[in-house]
Amino acid sequence: MALVFAPLRGETQRLFCQLAQQAGLCVSQHQQYDAQVWDVHLKMQREGKEAYDENIHYPLLITLTKRPQPVSHSQ
């Protein structure tokens, strides 16, 4: 398993996840992965509009895992 924290950065994160899936990995994205981080994010959205850009500042959690291998029942 790999854990990646990365902001969207336009299409960059989507393209990364697409490549990971094409390579055979399971990809899941999590926006609310920590209560304290989420609270700061919400505060910055309300109060830091001049300096805070969610697209480049708020990291999403991406988990990458191997896909389960099919079980072979060869005799």
UniProtKB/TrEMBL annotation:
It is found in: Cytoplasm; Nucleus. GO terms for biological process: methylation. GO terms for molecular function: calmodulin-lysine N-methyltransferase activity. Transmembrane segments: none annotated. One of its GO terms (cellular component) is cytoplasm. Keywords: Cytoplasm, Methyltransferase, Nucleus, Transferase. This is Calmodulin-lysine N-methyltransferase. The lineage of its organism: Eukaryota, Metazoa, Chordata, Craniata, Vertebrata.
